[in-house]
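#structure-requests
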Amino acid sequence: PGADPRDPYNVYNNTPVFADIDTWGLALTMNLDTAIGTITSVTGYREFDDLVQSDYDASPVNFFYALRDQTHQQLSQEFRLGGGTDRLDYVVGVYYLDQNYDITNAQGGSIYGVATPRQIASQDNTAYAVFGQVDYKLVEDLTLTVGGRYSYEEKTFTNQPLFFPVSRTYEDNWDNFSPKIGLTYQA
């Protein structure tokens, strides 16, 4: 109110703007030395919640604003065994990931008339992996490396776009084996 509309540095806010963001995480690594090698556990957890309202047009007219509400959780766990001798080093392990994500994006303003359409989406993701690698010293400065990783992942994604009365769900999964072989020479 009372601002000069010709001032290029004047920004209008017709909708209350705020951001309520809460994020935290935890990581824990534990090692246990045994006769056959070191057992390592790596655990991770993350959580993210945000509620953000924005006024996008910055004009004197309440033309376009949005309220985004989203949550995300993720848990990962890896176990591995590693060890070796003078000529041989090895590591084998397994990995697990589980995450989910939900978002609702409500939009409003004179661009939509009296409507406040919502876009709603969610995704669930689960992944597994098994891996291993051996490094064998052939001679003093030459090492042979052989290894591989098998990964499997599944995703489910649900989306209800703006102005659509129903949602649609998509599901798929993937797997992959990635081998590794190489020679390393230490000059």
